[in-house]
Design goal:
This protein has 263 residues and is an alpha/beta fold. It has one domain: NAD(P)-binding Rossmann-like Domain (Rossmann fold). The protein has seven helices and seven strands, in the order βαβαβαβαβαβααβ. Strands 3-2-1-4-5-6-7 form a seven-stranded parallel sheet, with helices on both faces. Helix 1 packs across helix 7 and helix 4 runs parallel beside helix 5. The model has no long low-confidence stretch (mean pLDDT 92).
C-alpha cells in the first residue's frame, strides 16, 4: 500500500450518491485520504445518501471531510462549495467526478429537453466541478482529476444514443484537459493530471443493465461471465489518485470485464 498511500491528501467526490459513488469515496478513505462529497442536485434523498456515504468514509478512516448539498450544474454553487471545503478542510488534491445518470430510450421517443438533461447531468457537471477545482489546482502545480465514463462513450448499443453522447463529451473533455493542464516545469515530476475510469456494465449503476432481462443476457455475453461490482472499480480510483502515478495522463483505465475487446 505504500505506493498508493493517500494519507495527507484531500479528495472531493462529486455526485457521490449511488453504489458507485459510495465505493469510490470509501476506497479513497481506506487509502488514507480525507474525503469530502457532494450531491448532484438539491434533492433531499440525495442529501441523506451523501451524508451516509460521508459517515462511511469517516468510519474507514477518511476523517474531517464534509458533505455539500448543491446543484452540480450551478457554477456559483460549486464555486462556493469548493472555496468552503478548501478553507475549512484542506486544499483539494484529488477530484473524482462520479455523477452518472442514464436515460435509456429510443431517439425517436426522446425530446430535446431529455437530451439537454442528460448532457447537463453527465457532462456539464464534470466541466463545472473541474473548472472550480482546477482554478486552484493549476496554480499549485499538481493534482488529480478522475472522471467516470461509461464504455458506451465509443461502443454503440440500441436506445443508448443520448447517454452515449454524454459519455463521449466527458471523454473528449478529459483528453483535451489533460493536455491543457498537464504542462508546467519539466523539472517537476508531479503536475495536474486528468484521467478517466471507463466502466462497463456495473451492478447498481444506471445503464441498460438496470433491466433484469438485459442484465441476464449480459451475464452470459461478458467475457468474465458476470456484471461488474462497484467494488471492482475501487482499485482504479486509488491507482489514478496516487502520487506515484504522476506519469499517467489523458488515459482511460477500463474496468469492464473485457467487453471492449469482445467481438
Amino acid at each position: 500500500m505504500t505506493l498508493f498511500d493517500l494519507t495527507g491528501t484531500h479528495s472531493l467526490v462529486t455526485g457521490a450518491t449511488g453504489a458507485l459513488g459510495r465505493a469510490l469515496a470509501v476506497a479513497l478513505a481506506e487509502a488514507g485520504a480525507t474525503v469530502s462529497v457532494t450531491t448532484v442536485s438539491t434533492d433531499r434523498a440525495e442529501e441523506v445518501e451523501a451524508n451516509s456515504i460521508l459517515n462511511e468514509c469517516w468510519a474507514a478512516g477518511g476523517k474531517n471531510g464534509q458533505q455539500k448539498t448543491l446543484d452540480l450544474t450551478d457554477p456559483a454553487a460549486v464555486e462556493a462549495a469548493v472555496a468552503a471545503l478548501e478553507k475549512d478542510v484542506a486544499p483539494i488534491d484529488i477530484l473524482v467526478n462520479a455523477g452518472h445518470a442514464a436515460n435509456i430510450k429510443p431517439v425517436l421517443a426522446s425530446s430535446v429537453a431529455e437530451w439537454m438533461r442528460e448532457l447537463n447531468r453527465n457532462a456539464t457537471t464534470v466541466f463545472v466541478a473541474s473548472q472550480a477545482v482546477g482554478k486552484r489546482m493549476v496554480p499549485r502545480g499538481k493534482g488529480r482529476i478522475i472522471n467516470v465514463v461509461s464504455d458506451l462513450h465509443d461502443r454503440g448499443i440500441p436506445n443508448c444514443a443520448i447517454f452515449g453522447a454524454s459519455q463521449g463529451a466527458i471523454l473528449g473533455f478529459t483528453k483535451s484537459l489533460a493536455l491543457e493542464w498537464g504542462g508546467g516545469d519539466p523539472l517537476v515530476e508531479d503536475r495536474v493530471t486528468v484521467n478517466a475510469i471507463g466502466i462497463g456494465f456495473i451492478e447498481g449503476v444506471p445503464g441498460p443493465q438496470a433491466d433484469p432481462a438485459v442484465a441476464e443476457v449480459l451475464g452470459r455475453y461478458l467475457p468474465l461471465r458476470r456484471l461488474g461490482s462497484p467494488k471492482d472499480v475501487q482499485g482504479a480510483v486509488v491507482f489514478l489518485a496516487a502520487p506515484t502515478t504522476n506519469y499517467v495522463n489523458a488515459e482511460v483505465v477500463l474496468i469492464d470485464g473485457a467487453i471492449a475487446t469482445h467481438a
